[in-house]
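Q: Please design a sequence for this.
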């Protein structure tokens, strides 16, 4: 998937936008970034949590595992200029700060705070946040706490074109009618 989002004003092409490549798993950050730039993209959107070290959702957690295991890759993999201009972080997809489950809500809040602090430490230009749910007061509270602290990091919010509920209803209606589901 590609993401076209303005990072800054381009001096080489006037008002053109920067274009980035979003990936879900990147085991070798240097290689992924190199291939992204060679492919003509300006930045890489990658998870803040390393796939090997990321927190598990509470239901998937091993109770015997250490609680303070590392969750991110080393900040020494790239130089500070690369972190701040060529990487956009994205938060873990399982985070649900407004979950009805108290343990899930607490873990989600902690993970969101940890990931936003890591992004600030790296001086990332931006962090891509998931779209908030309809009732997202807690999510909004946690994000709001970081707005003042993230002086050099923008928070981008993913905004779906179609509500997930509408998309699911259309797929059910198409299945009931025997038609293929609508393309996303």
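A: Design:
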């Amino acid at each position: 998937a590609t993401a076209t989002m303005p990072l800054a004003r381009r001096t080489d092409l006037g008002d053109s936008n920067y274009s980035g490549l979003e990936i879900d798993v990147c085991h070798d950050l240097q290689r992924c970034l190199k291939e992204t730039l060679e492919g003509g993209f300006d930045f890489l959107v990658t998870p803040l949590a390393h796939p090997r070290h990321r927190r598990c959702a509470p239901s998937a957690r091993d109770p015997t595992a250490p609680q303070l295991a590392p969750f991110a890759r080393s900040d020494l993999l790239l130089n500070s200029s690369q972190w701040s201009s060529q990487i956009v972080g994205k938060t873990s997809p399982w985070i649900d700060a407004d979950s009805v489950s108290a343990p899930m809500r607490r873990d989600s809040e902690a993970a969101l705070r940890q990931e936003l602090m890591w992004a600030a430490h790296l001086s990332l230009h931006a962090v891509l946040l998931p779209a908030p749910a309809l009732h997202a007061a807690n999510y909004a509270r946690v994000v709001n706490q970081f707005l003042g602290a993230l002086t050099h990091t923008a928070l981008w919010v993913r905004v779906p074109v179609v509500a997930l509920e509408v998309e699911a209803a259309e797929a059910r209606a198409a299945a009931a009618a025997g038609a293929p589901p609508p393309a996303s």
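Q: Thanks. Anything notable?
A: The chain is about 35% helix and 15% strand. The mean pLDDT is 76.
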